[in-house]
Amino acid sequence: MLVLPLNDGHDRKGFDCGDAELNAWFGQVARQHKLKGVSSSFVVVTDEACAEVLGFYAISLAELVITDLPAQYRKRLPNKLPVFRLGRLATAKKHQGHGIGEFMLFDAIERVTRIAGEVGGVGLVVNAKLSAVDFYQRYGFEQMADHPHNLFLPL
Known about the structure:
Blueprint: E1 2-5, H1 20-28, H2 30-36, E2 40-45, E3 55-65, E4 80-91, H3 100-119, E5 123-127, H4 133-138, E6 142-143, E7 150-154
Parallel strand pairs: 4-5
Antiparallel strand pairs: 1-2, 2-3, 3-4, 5-7, 6-7
């Protein structure tokens, strides 16, 4: 499996993760967000020539107010903090249960950790669906103070 930046050769319209909202976003919005500088999407494919998307995730920049962070991360930091946002993460239905979600999450964490080392950023945040909160918490994400579905992973 490879993780590549989304491009026009990837089949966005044929992607189905079982969630109509995520499917629509990926099919209609992901490429536009890249072109407008809003976010970048990355896809999992079997090889570079493959059009079939096994899964995707989107990353963007964000800013947090320090009071939203879990208490143990608030010391000696400014009131507003640069972070990365994992905006969406989805696996195609026929590939679910094969570790692709975990593979994408690890890739996203590695990617933002590398970028944070160059330009700054204190963590990765995600606004998880209720059904995904446990998934993220297994990998070290912690609940933020502002909402129980908002999670933070320090970098």
